[in-house]
Amino acid sequence: MSSTETKSLTDRGGAVREGEALDVAAVENWLRAEGIALDGQAELTQFSGGASNWTYRLKYANRDLILRRPPAGTKAKSAHDMQREYRVQSALKPQYPAVPDMVALCTDESVIGCDFYVMDRIDGIIPRANLPRGLELSQAQVRALCENAIDKLAELHRVDYRVAGLESLGKGDGYVRRQVEGWSARYLKAKTWNVPSFRKVRDWLHANMPDDVANCVIHNDWRFDNLVLDAEDPTRIIGVLDWEMATLGDPLMDLGSALAYWVQADDDRFMRALRRQPTHLPGMLTRREVVDRYLENSGLRCDNWTFYEVFGLFRLAVIVQQIYYRYHHRQTHNPAFKRFWLLVHYFHHRCRRLMR
User: Fold this and answer.
1) How many other C-beta atoms are found inside a 10 Å radius of the C-beta of residue 212?
2) Is the model's pTM score more than 0.70?
3) What is the pLDDT along the chain (356 residues), one digit of tens a residue?
4) Which of the two ends of the chain, N or C, has the fewest CB atoms closer than 10 A to its terminal CB?
5) Which residues contact 350 (CB under 8 A, 6 or more apart)?
6) CA torsion, points 286, 289, 290, 292, in degrees to nearest 10?
């Protein structure tokens, strides 16, 4: 495939969604006041998603920028903390080059009504449920991409957070316990009448909690659609995005949460229907092979991987149930959430099967 053809596969965004317009003039005035030179008129697009922070692209003749802001109506800044997200990436960049270059942070809500930050766009391919149409990788290339994704996570976990100045990012030892107790409490708060109690799963997690294996920078949302691939060599990862949930914690908990989204080719039909990343392709590692590759690369030991796998699925069940809770109580009318309670039952089944 030629350079021109691969360039056409890079992620460019689409039309701005209704109700999510961006005041480009206000942003441009602020950027220029910050000393950022902008040539020409912005070509504005918006990236897919929107359940989390809203992400826009402002392309100028001399600069290709990404703007991140919270969704409209966000009440708690802690849920969409632009200042934290900006500062984490600024601190990580010298130690972990896959982080985008930060440009500027705005905490003046008079500009567009909320905090936001701007960073340089990384020009590359973002793999979603499927690879972009026209991108065909051999089985060997798929395997190389998969191994590089695992190795890039292990590389993050080796970053010295003290050198990066990120000591205040987490609470120290006891991360595993805090996560099990925290997600258990969130589930009980979001439970509706039509989903299981998860009592046996919660009790099992409490009873089988290992000690923290390490305390390091973790991403907490490691998926292929948060990675940017080199358009010239799509097996190479040149960017890692979406640092909203990054913290200091246990690296095996990060891996367990990542594998909750990992759908392999021989999974059952229900699991395959949930796939959000191209982990089904010939050449992709199985979940077990991912764990083996990570442990070999990181040098860590794990005597009870089942705990991390069950935790990852339970955490995902809680996230899904929190979304369904909003639909159930008519806080949102998005029809896509109508049957999310069925997913919660499925994740409960998967947890119980692993526990056995």
Assistant:
1) 19
2) yes
3) 555 555 567 777 889 988 899 999 999 999 999 999 999 999 999 987 645 789 999 999 999 999 999 988 655 555 679 999 999 999 999 999 999 999 999 999 999 999 999 999 999 999 999 999 899 999 999 999 999 999 999 999 999 999 999 999 999 999 999 999 999 999 999 999 999 999 999 999 999 999 999 999 999 999 999 999 999 999 999 999 999 999 999 999 999 999 999 999 999 999 999 999 999 999 999 999 999 999 999 999 999 999 999 999 999 999 999 999 999 999 888 898 999 999 999 999 999 999 99
4) C
5) 271, 313
6) 160
Q: 43 by DSSP, 3-state: which?
A: strand
Degrees (nearest 5) of the Cα angle 296, 98, 21? 130
Give DSSP secondary structure letters for 52-113.
S-EEEEEE-SS-EEEEEEPPTT---GGGG-HHHHHHHHHHHTTT-TTSPPEEEEE--TTTTS
Q: Which helix (H) or strand (E) holds 292?
A: helix 287-298
Distance between CA atoms of residues 108 and 123, nearest Å: 29
For CA atoms 140, 144, 145, 146, the dihedral sign is positive
Instruction: Name the one residue in this structure whose structure tokens are 């922070």.
Output: 53
Smallest CA-to-CA distance from 105 within 88, 120, 86 is with: 86
Q: Give the distance from CA 71 to its chain's centroid.
A: 17
Q: Which of 216, 227, 226, 240 is nearest to 101 (CA)?
A: 240
For residues 283 and 224, what is the distance between their CA atoms, to the nearest angstrom? 15
Q: Which residues share a beta bridge with 67? A: 56, 118
Domains and CATH numbers, the chain: 3-120 (3.30.200.20), 139-355 (3.90.1200.10)
Q: How far apart are CA 320 and CA 337, in angstroms?
A: 9
* Tokens standing for residue 12: 């460019």
